[in-house]
């Protein structure tokens, strides 16, 4: 079996897993997409209390932001029609705003 090492030459042989709800999984996936990082890198940075900096101005990040904005728009329309507001929506809006703010800093 060939050893797979990370970009720093470390052999990562340990696996750590945890369970999440469907809503949590969806939120985590959205955050990962908007960061431009691999899910493993995103989770490691968050768990070790390091900053997650948006990875440049990649088309993947723009696509993720567009998809998130469409979902936010749909949720806001649903709420406007008398639906309840989910807590995850507020967090998603915050993540989108932070991502856009980071992208603006990179642009300067």
Précis, in short:
The protein is mainly α. The protein is 61% helix and 0% strand.
Rounded radius of gyration (Å): 16 Å
Shape: globular
Unreliable stretches, pLDDT < 50, 5 or more residues? none
Query: Roughly how many Å apart are the termini?
Result: 46 Å
How many DSSP helices? 4
Q: What structural class do you assign from the helix and strand content?
A: mainly alpha
Q: List how many beta strands DSSP finds.
A: 0
Q: Indicate the percent of residues in helices.
A: 55-70%
What integer is the average pLDDT?
Answer: 82
Strand content: under 5%
Order of helices and strands: HHHH
Largest β-sheet summary: none
Task: Give an overview in words.
The protein is mainly alpha-helical. 61% of the residues lie in helices and 0% in strands. The chain is built from four helices and no strands. Helix 1 packs across helix 3 (59-80) and helix 3 packs antiparallel against helix 4. It is globular and about 55 Å long. The termini are far apart. The model has no long low-confidence stretch (mean pLDDT 82).
Descriptive terms for the model:
108 residues; mainly alpha; 4 helices; 61% helix; globular
């Amino acid at each position: 079996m060939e050893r797979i090492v990370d970009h720093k030459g470390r052999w990562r042989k340990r696996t750590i897993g945890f369970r999440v709800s469907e809503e949590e999984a969806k939120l985590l996936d959205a955050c990962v997409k908007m960061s431009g990082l691999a899910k493993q890198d995103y989770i490691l940075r968050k768990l070790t209390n390091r900053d997650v900096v948006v990875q440049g101005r990649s088309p993947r990040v723009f696509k993720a932001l567009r998809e998130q904005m469409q979902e936010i728009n749909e949720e806001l329309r649903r709420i406007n029609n008398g639906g309840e507001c989910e807590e995850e929506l507020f967090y998603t809006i915050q993540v989108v705003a932070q991502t856009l703010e980071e992208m603006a800093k990179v642009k300067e």
